[in-house]
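Quick start: what a row looks like.
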Amino acid sequence: MPIEGIKFSSASQDMHPFGIFEAAMVFPHPAGIIRLKVEFVVINNCASQHFILGHDYLNIYGNDINNHKDRYFIIGENKRQKFGFPLEKREITVIRQLKNVHQEKFVSDQDAFASDNEPRGTIKGHEVDIIPNVERPYPPLLQRPAYPASPRARESLESHINELIKLRVLRTVGHNEVEVTTPLIITWHNDKLRMVGDFRALNTNTIPDRYSIPRIHETLTQL
């Protein structure tokens, strides 16, 4: 059947739908079998050798999306002739081999990861040094007061900060360490707090990292 008023696109180009055809298919199901009428979109400027069946679509009807059993389907009225998608068992062996390789790599490079007794994100040899480009006393932009917040936001913010302190993502500072302050922006998403630091002033007054990265036109010239 023809199709109108619907647009399709891929990562590289626009797709021009030619039409839709329906196919009655039968899939194995824990309760026996399930019959579905599946619609496929025919793309005029994109040839494909495979039919694409979305896992989410099949999962809605309770199909086994992990291929614990071989899938099959029938075409037309001939219900005895079955077509399937065989599962290559050798893929499972490859996954187990890759798992062992990754475990060995993690053990050999364990110094690159933080242990249970260290704060999260601790990576030895890659510490980030924040060096300001101004001398003390710092300008008022680096000592800004907190933004106004509602009692609900303040209560949630204190709870969130205490949780981060317990996880050792943050730490409390002494009175002699309070030199640079930055306000926090509090946003809500699905009734959950999101704490965002306003570091625009700190970034402006910080010496940026500099790496000897070649220029793009020099790299293209060498190629």
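That is the whole record. The first helix runs from residue 55 to 60. The two ends are 50 Å apart (CA to CA).
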